[in-house]
Amino acid sequence: VNGLMTLGFTGARQQTELCNESLMLEKLPACGKSFEEMMKKVDSKKWCNLTEFIMYYDNFTQCTEREANNASCFWPNPLAEGFITGIHKQFFSNCTSEKVHWEDPPDEILITLILIPVMLTCAMITLVVWCSKRSDIL
């Protein structure tokens, strides 16, 4: 039985190939070039709006994944991530996230939000004390 199980496990194991990093790095620029051509269709003022180019970016991502897999490399990997980061710097370096300025709510709302839990806590404490003094009912 052990021999059959060992044979089954070794037979099921696939031979893994080593990642051909040079092939992957050779092929990834074609994905970048294709993405660059597609991004020319989008006004550069709209490059920070993902809805304007999401399909192009999806094609770019699939291309980088396909080329990494063709080179027997995992995706994402540090080399592919470095390439993708370079594309991001090229197209999206001016896209900054606006910081949200938080404000306190108006005093009336703030007082209400503070007083409701305080009043409920007082009411629950009163109820517990009152019920504990009336142990004859329980």
From TrEMBL:
Keywords: Cell membrane, Disulfide bond, Glycoprotein, Membrane, Receptor, Signal, Transmembrane, Transmembrane helix, Transport
One GO process term, biological-process aspect: calcium ion transport
GO molecular function, one term: coreceptor activity
Gene Ontology annotations for the cellular component aspect, listed alphabetically: cell surface; plasma membrane; receptor complex
Family: Belongs to the RAMP family.
Superkingdom: Eukaryota
Gene3D superfamilies: Receptor activity modifying family
Transmembrane segments: 109-131
Annotated membrane topology: Single-pass type I membrane protein
UniProt name for this protein: Receptor activity-modifying protein 3
Organism, scientific name: Cnemophilus loriae
Gene that encodes the chain: Ramp3
Compartments where located: Cell membrane
